[in-house]
Structures are given as structure tokens and as C-alpha cells.
Amino acid sequence: MKQIVLAVFLLITGSGTFAQTKKYTVIKTDAEWRKLLTAEQYRVTRKKGTEAAYSGIYWDNHKAGIYKCVCCNQELFSSATKFESGTGWPSFWKPIVKTNLEEITDNSFGMERTEVNCSRCGAHLGHVFDDGPKPTGLRYCMNSASLSFTPKQ
Predict the structure, then answer these.
(1) Quick one: CA dihedral 83, 87, 93, 97, positive or negative?
(2) pTM
(3) Catalytic positions, written as ranges
(4) How far apart are alpha carbons 26 and 122 in whole angstroms?
């Protein structure tokens, strides 16, 4: 009976061997990520941190180009969909390819939000909200620390 109760508990809480784990195509050890990234990039992308508003390098970037995942270089957003949200974080109304992102319900800090991760390496990028401009009505609010930028040639 104790084993059944434990199995049910593990299934409900998502802990243990019964929980499904997303498999990413880019996999590195914690030590490899720490060596590859700055301390701030590591904190944001690997530990689900958030940079302070107006502190990142891309919130006020108006150059044409492509924003990529800082961890694996996957293309995420085009400057053509970037807009001024007034939040202090780079904001976009549409990703380049929806499948390049992974959206997960985030119930941290006593609120329900939708976390956005890179679908290739699992890097935490930011959150998406439904208060963006037309045509999507979405605001992908990203951390500069999770992005790299390639200017249009």
C-alpha cells in the first residue's frame, strides 16, 4: 500500500522517474554551460533568472537583424517583430518559427505566466503575455542576457 501511495504522489507532483523530461538536441553539463556563458547569462538561461529592467543590451536596440539563443545560436526573433513595450526588456510580437520556442506554464511568485524557453537547448528566455500589439496580441518579453544579435548584412 505504501508503494502505491508513493507512486501516486510522484505522479501528481511530477517528481521521480514517472515524470516526463523534455529531451533537447543541445545538451551540456553544468560545468560546460558555466564555461561557455557569462555569470549573468548562466543565471538567466540555466537557472531561470530575470535581468533587471532597462539593464540589458538589447532593450533599446533598433538595428535590423536576428536575435538568437545565446546558448545554442538557434534563431528566435527578427528585429521586424520587435516593438517598444515600455517594460525595459526586448519585446517581440512573433517568433521567427514558433517551434523554436517551448512554452511552459510558470506558477512561480504567486502568479500564472507562460515561460518561454529555447526548444533546442532549454535555455530560459523570458515570458510571453497576451497584451502585445496586433496582429498577434502577444508580447514575448525576453531577457537580453538570453539573446545574441546578428545584424542584417
Answers:
(1) positive
(2) 0.84
(3) 141
(4) 8
